[in-house]
Known about the structure:
Blueprint lengths: L21 H30 L1 H27 L6 H10 L7 E8 L2 E8 L1 H9 L4 H20 L4 E6 L11 E6 L5
Antiparallel strand pairs: 1-2, 2-4, 3-4
Helix pairs in contact: 1-2, 2-5
Amino acid sequence: MKQLYDYSGDFDPSFEHGRLSKEGLVELLHTYSDYIRRLDGHWYLSVMKRCGNDTAFACDSEVWERLVLHELKIARDILNIKGDDAVAVAKVFQVSPWFWMYNCDIDLKSRDHLIITYTSCPTLFALEKEGAGREQQICVDLEMKIFMKMAHFYNPDMKVNALKLPPRGGPDDICCRWEFKVERKK
């Protein structure tokens, strides 16, 4: 069966995603991950416009705290990402379609020590452009909640520390840097 990258020909009533080429599937995943990011942003802004930022942030936090657990279960069950260390968290960062839209450096210092640095973040760039000062809520408060959920999914003793947070010193500065660490009892 011929794999598709270009579906510009005739309509195929028996179309299945499994017929797409690897390149086509990867491009589609990247496109849909950006779509999800945009959907999240527009949803937040719509709620904020109608109900205020406090309500929008409360709803966003509730949704993401639930969805991150769903995403972690998908990674565990489909890709067999298991463990009680920073390696499992690093792998989730690698495979998550949500993180594909961000440029991140993943520095695995050891099995129990991970540093992740966001060098490009469309969410932060949009918040900076907006100029309303919501970086604290989104980039600090919400991210810490999400990252703690990720860490504790694999190990309830894993710590998450923010090493560098917005505001940035300029357009060439990194967006943020986070540490995930397990200190084993000897």
